[in-house]
Specification:
By secondary structure, the chain is of the alpha+beta class. Among the domains are: 24-85, 3-Layer(aba) Sandwich (MutS, DNA mismatch repair protein, domain I), CATH 3.40.1170; 188-260, DNA polymerase, domain 1 (Orthogonal Bundle), CATH 1.10.150; 264-435, Dna Ligase, domain 1. The chain has 16 helices and 13 strands. The protein has a six-stranded mixed β-sheet with strand order 5-6-1-7-9-8. The protein has a four-stranded antiparallel β-sheet with strand order 10-13-11-12. It has a three-stranded mixed β-sheet with strand order 3-2-4. A hairpin with a 4-residue loop joins β11 and β12. α13 runs antiparallel to α14. The longest helix has 22 residues, at 278-299. The protein is globular. It starts with 15 loop residues before the first strand and ends in a 21-residue tail after the last helix. The structure holds a DNA duplex.
Length: 444
DNA sequence: TCTGGGGTCCTAGGACCC
DNA sequence: TCTGGGGTCCTAGGACCC
């Protein structure tokens, strides 16, 4: 490979940009509490079953990485500070981040809170080169958000993303750097460079697929580039095989998609102490249903398909789902379906995780929840639950709107359902007096 | 070292319709 | 009476991403 640094690419050579904020959650925590600066800081679950979501560079020096169990991280770094995570705060920063990208071009696609792909082609008429765009972005993110980031430029998403990974501190390959914190893989280097990467570096190759590929004698991207696609398809499925072979050859047809429709939404929780009784699981169903119902209404959508997922202490998971002839966004309606699904599962093993998900969305205004004249089969829990759910959805519509309005004005904890309070061992009286508006008091 | 919580997509089989 | 093949919807599970 050549030792001279690459020249600045043209728009034709590098139309796609990828930005990735460095150690995002941890960096936000340090900004909000400067006394943390220079210390090994993580965001994640501190409890026994917690994992690390984001680690500062100090923490990484000790070998701490995201997705690592917190107990392991603590072992590696006894002084590690693990913070619980304030996702509302990260969202605020994320919005600002997107705002900065949007000022450059509206043709961008967020990936989680801390990454963005942007299509730079609309900048042609302004005569902006990709490196200028990357510098501008880095500068503004530094000044306005006080965050560091890495930028990758490429002729497609594949190369842009692989490049931004190379821009990170401690990873830098100087042959690829075109500016401070900006990486581009030139056409001359492209083929040789990607060939030398391990298969695990490719998008879509996780631990399982990597193991399968290794068993097939495929360790490097160059091995994948030569493999027979049909043979690979027998082991990985048609779609995965086609994608990986294309990536290995540097081909990636994915476009920057500005508006992605939300397809599912849900809430799950791993319990510090596994649930052992049906009653506990049913009670958690109602709690999850409340979270999901509010999220659905926030999106102005109703869901026809409700799924529950349970994970047991042996880490085995199982899911059950039910599609309704109508959409729901009411807490009691969701609870009714979710509890019926849970009741259909053998709960002889302790439950460490319960998840409740909603999908098959309809616009709220398109939903047709007619009253049913179907005869419900006696003893069929699912059908009974569906009819129960229909009644809740129809009958509580105006009450639900009123409660949402109160929550919007006075905070999420301002109103609750009496049965929830009872299940938490609280007395209804707490809703009166000083708690009438929730802990924060009335907002504005 | 033992795995969170927010999502996405793919696969495969069965039911049902034409 | 027994049969085919394609399309669509639903369910369940698995893997991946940040």
């Amino acid at each position: 490979m050549s030792n001279s640094p690459a020249e600045s690419p043209s728009l034709e050579e590098a139309p796609i940009l990828h930005v990735d904020l460095d150690a995002f959650f941890a960096s936000v925590e340090i900004l909000d509490d400067p006394s943390l600066r220079g210390k090994p800081v993580c965001v994640g679950g501190a409890a026994e079953r917690g994992v690390i979501a984001s680690a500062s560079y100090e923490a990484r020096r000790h070998g701490v990485k995201s997705a690592m169990p917190s107990v392991v991280a603590r072992r590696l770094c006894p002084d590690l500070i693990i913070l619980p995570g304030r996702f509302d705060r990260y969202e605020e920063y994320s919005h600002q981040f997107h705002g900065v990208v949007n000022d450059l071009t509206p043709d961008y696609e967020p990936l989680g809170l801390d990454e963005v792909f942007a299509d730079l082609r609309s900048l042609r008429r302004l005569g902006v080169r990709p490196l200028d765009a990357a510098r501008e972005l880095r500068g503004r993110i530094r000044e306005e958000l006080q965050l560091e980031c890495g930028v990758g430029l490429g002729r497609n998403k594949l190369f842009a993303k692989l490049a931004s990974k190379q821009s990170k501190p401690h990873v830098v390959d100087h042959q690829l750097v075109v500016g401070e914190g900006v990486v581009w893989v030139s056409p001359e280097l492209e083929e040789r460079w990607i060939a030398e990467l391990p298969v695990r570096a490719l998008w879509g190759v996780g631990p399982q697929t990597a193991t399968k590929l290794h068993q097939l004698g495929l360790r490097w991207v160059r091995d994948l580039a030569k493999v027979d696609e049909e043979t690979l398809a027998r082991h990985l499925g048609a779609a995965m095989a086609a994608t990986l072979v294309a990536y290995a050859r540097g081909e990636d047809e994915r476009t920057v998609t500005v508006h992605r429709e939300l397809k599912s939404l849900g809430h799950d929780q791993t319990f510090a102490i596994s649930l052992t009784s049906l009653e506990e699981v049913l009670s958690q169903c109602r709690h999850h249903a409340g979270v999901v119902a509010r999220a659905l209404r926030g999106q102005g959508r109703v869901a026809r398909t409700i799924s529950v997922v349970l994970r047991f202490d042996d880490l085995e998971s199982l899911s059950r789902s039910q599609t309704l002839p109508f959409g729901i966004d009411d807490e009691s309606a969701l609870t009714s379906v979710a509890q019926a699904l849970v009741r259909s599962v053998d709960l002889s093993r302790p439950v460490r995780l319960l998840g409740l998900y909603a999908s098959s969305f309809l616009e709220r205004s398109d939903n047709q929840v007619q009253l049913s004249f179907d005869v419900v089969t006696e003893g069929d829990r699912r059908n009974e639950a569906i009819e129960q759910s229909r009644e809740y959805q129809v009958s509580s519509a105006s009450l639900r709107d009123a409660l949402d309005d109160i929550r919007r004005r006075y905070g999420a904890s301002s109103v609750g359902v009496a049965s929830d309070l009872a299940s938490q061992g609280l007395r209804i009286e707490r809703q009166r007096g000083s708690h009438a508006f929730g802990p924060e008091g009335p907002v504005k």
